[in-house]
Amino acid sequence: MQAHSRTSAARPDAIRSHNLGVVLADVHRAGARSRSELTRRTGLTRSTIGALVSELCALGLVVERRPDLHVRAGRPSHVVQAAPSGPYVIAISVEIDTVIVAGVGLGGRILARQDEAVPEDERSPEQVAACCADLARRVIASLPRRTRPIAVGVSVPGVVSRATGCIEIAPNLDWRDVPMPELIAERLGRSLPILVGNDADLGALAEHLRGVARDCSDLIFINGRIGVGGGVIVDGHRLHGVGGFAGEFGHMAVDPDGIVCHCGGAGCWETKIGERRLLELAGRPEAHGPIAVAETLAAADRGDPRARAAVDEVSSWMGRGLGALTNIFNPEMIVVGGTLSAVLRSRPERIRAALEATALPVAAATVTVVPPALGADATLLGAAELAFAPLLADPLRTMAAASA
Amino acid sequence: MQAHSRTSAARPDAIRSHNLGVVLADVHRAGARSRSELTRRTGLTRSTIGALVSELCALGLVVERRPDLHVRAGRPSHVVQAAPSGPYVIAISVEIDTVIVAGVGLGGRILARQDEAVPEDERSPEQVAACCADLARRVIASLPRRTRPIAVGVSVPGVVSRATGCIEIAPNLDWRDVPMPELIAERLGRSLPILVGNDADLGALAEHLRGVARDCSDLIFINGRIGVGGGVIVDGHRLHGVGGFAGEFGHMAVDPDGIVCHCGGAGCWETKIGERRLLELAGRPEAHGPIAVAETLAAADRGDPRARAAVDEVSSWMGRGLGALTNIFNPEMIVVGGTLSAVLRSRPERIRAALEATALPVAAATVTVVPPALGADATLLGAAELAFAPLLADPLRTMAAASA
Question: DSSP 3-state assignment of B60?
Fold first, then answer.
């Protein structure tokens, strides 16, 4: 943790609240921290840390436990951890055919979980919002009454306005201009802040905070299924873009002679590596979904020539696009999720070779391409982080607002 | 200015030094600020601002002047500005055929300037470093003795390691692994910190701080001549990448059937829009430089069919690549510098149409594509900012080190 951001003044009146948030965020991220670790990591004094921890205890956000005296020599330090009866958030992952809702506590613990399949003819924004609200109520009802939700975070497979949380476009659900926060709020029957984010952005955040990219400050997360989206962490911060629409890697133009994409562009990367392209090349244009992709990969492994050619071509295009992104971002890690993750597991050398043929050697040398660690929970845990962000930025104000 | 970075604790002992830097940076960026503006922008109290300004005066970094009493009603506020006899930095712009060196004062004022053409057979790293050191000594000698240089910032047309300042590769100078800070330091005969950055990164920084993109927090700067490099500002901060190599847009793969680039990849954007491609398409493969580009654009305007077709094709490829970058970054502004700037001025509609055919409408709608405001001075002023960064981050320590 560095001392300060260069461009922000430190106002005496804001320092206590800010430092409460820094300590809470560190405990939240790690699950538990000793007082001495907190002292070392923040650079604050022991007595300041003691006062901040006491205040977080009084707010019901953390608890302290005595250290196990037999474990180590020296004067042991108290351990600070998220309060088991502390506030939690509602995390919602809207996928194309499923809605998953969880209660997630400080420390990133999933406390309760509900999911429901969404049939193809029940995917209007209103129907999906009703499903979200219904599952959220069930999650809240299943949790002890002494705890309470403080915010809702929603992951959606679409382009989300940073300013309003409105879904500008979700091509695979055929949605446009959907005011998701309002639709859920009307159906939830509770006054809670509702924050919405793009699934790949939230996947990137979750893998950065709790997954395979925990120690990376510069990473790209690619969520590749039918559509191909991405999230980027730059120097530890999410890349939003001016409107919140950054990371649309699927619509990077990679082939001037390529087919026309649903976005209107030609030769978008998504048309080269998406699930539809793989299955079409493999001679199964009517198939879809992770199982069909797995079957195609298995057929390629068994030596089926058409499946093998399809997997080879998609892998080469994956590597070529990853190489372009390596030149653009110089990331330390690229996390490939969704059904593309299975392609990566099947053809790592081919993908790597295409990346190295495309990227500058200095940038290629330091990038690793890996599957995600959190699997399908990445977007859910990312949605939880979105909902926790106001609490971690200002615990005093957020807890006061939640009690009001 | 926001209150704090979310991930950094505010240590009482570091606050004064930090706030001195925040006030100095604000004055440096604006040139002059009234005390009341500083109070409003930082959120600090009037008395704290008064104390910080006094301390900066005592350090010789700023001066205060009385406001002009006749200008406005109400109680006028003192105006704080960079001290005319304060410290300055040496800014060096290494270009392929020229070296430019300037003394730049706080506030971004160019105090003195020297340049020298570098003949093609005198471009070894040692020869260029000797030229830099020689011009720097001349600049220092031309400035009053009561002022003094505190650091050197160097812009180079190459890929620079963030950790060491070493130039990993500068293709158009045919350099590899050049320890530029050491080469200049040995020849300068003064002990000054020497910081090196990529020209497009520094151009982006200068246009963001002092140029056309002053009010943009998310922008892309493209420096297109023979090679095409870029710099990105994300939410007000430079995109470095893990090693400092981000922004190599010229090597974004845009055409699988394209020609092989000097980097080894095929169909790199640079091979579609660089100066060589334009002149080759126009039937002048032996020509090079801004004058030949201007002649080709003029010939196209006069109706020369071959020149017109060349400019059209390069413009279409420019727009297509800018569209891909728009999908990736969702920038507010794209600043196109170098000889590509002339192409942009010549064919704005064609470039815009290709961008809109490639980028998602939500992202295309908010991006503007413009020429730079600072022209050839962008990299020089960016190099000055690189050299000023340690002073602005910690004025007390930097001034103490400079006096030692």
Answer: coil
Q: Following DSSP, what letter does each residue of B181-205 receive, concatenated?
A: HHHHHHHH-S---EEEEEHHHHHHH
> Which chain A residue has its CA at the smallest distance from B52's CA?
A9
CA-based Rg of chain A, rounded to a whole angstrom?
23
Choose among A115, A132, A138, A150: nearest CA to A186.
A132
> Tokens representing A205?
């955040």
Pick the residue of A273, A329, A355 with the most B CBs within 10 A to test the interface with B by mutation: A329
Domain with CATH 1.10.10.10 in chain A: 12-82
Q: Can you name the CATH fold of B88-201+378-403?
A: Nucleotidyltransferase; domain 5 (3.30.420)
Chain A's closest residue to B354, CA to CA, is A265
Neighboring chain A residues of B237 at a CB cutoff of 8 Å: 234-235, 237
B189 CA: distance to closest CA in chain A (Å): 32
Chain B: closest CA distance from residue A243 (Å): 7
Give contacts of B354 with chain A, Cβ < 8 Å. none
Segment B335-339 mean pLDDT: 92
Query: Which chain A residue is nearest to residue B41, measuring alpha carbons?
Result: A9
Query: What is chain A's length?
Result: 404
Other C-beta atoms closer than 10 Å to the C-beta of B47 total 9
Q: What is the pLDDT of residues B193-204, one digit of tens each?
A: 999 999 999 999
Check CB contact under 8 Å for A159 and B360: yes
**Inter-chain CB proximity A360 and B255 less than 8 Å:** no
**Per-residue CA distances from A157 to A139, A188, A250, A292, B35 (Å):** 22, 21, 13, 21, 48
Consecutive H or E run containing B288: none
Phi, psi torsion values for B159, nearest 5 degrees:
-90, 120
**Burial class of residue B302 (count of CB atoms within 10 Å of its CB; 0-12, 13-18, 19+):** exposed
State the DSSP code for B174.
T
Distance CA B117, CA A33 (A): 59
- Contacts B22 to A, Cβ<8 Å: 6-9
Tokens for A182, please give them.
């309002």
Cβ separation of A14 and B3 shorter than 8 Å? yes
ipTM value, please give it: 0.88
Which amino acid appears at position A281 of this protein?
Answer: L
Cβ distance of B329 and A263 shorter than 8 Å: no
- pTM (2 d.p.): 0.89
Count of positions (residues) in chain B: 404
- Report whether B35 contacts B80 (CB < 8 A): yes
**A230 to chain B: closest CA residue:** B328
Residue whose tokens read 């649309």? A248
Structure-token match 């980027």, residue found: A232
Interface touch B43/A244, C-beta < 8 Å: no
Helix intervals (H) in A235-364: 270-273, 275-281, 290-301, 305-329, 340-346, 348-358, 361-364
Q: B35-69: per-residue pLDDT in tens?
A: 999 999 988 999 999 999 999 999 999 999 887 66
- Per-residue b or e along A30-44, where b marks 16 or more CB atoms closer than 10 Å to that residue's CB: beebbbbbbbebbbb
Token pair belonging to B355: 């961008």
Q: What is the SS3 assignment for A89?
A: strand
Query: What three-state secondary structure class fits B104?
Result: strand
Give the tens place of pLDDT for each residue, B94-118.
998 899 999 999 999 999 999 999 9
Could you tell me the strand order of the sheet in which A368-370 lies? A237-238, A228-234, A219-224, A333-338, A368-370
User: Cβ A7–B320 below 8 Å, yes or no?
Assistant: no
Residue type, B160: V
Give domain B215-372's CATH superfamily. ATPase, nucleotide binding domain (3.30.420.40)
Facing residue for A331 by CB, picked from B242, B255, B323: B242
Model confidence pLDDT, tens digit, residues A262-284 = 888 899 999 999 999 999 999 99
B12-82 fold: Arc Repressor Mutant, subunit A (1.10.10)
Region(s) of chain A under CATH 3.30.420.40: 88-201+378-403, 215-372
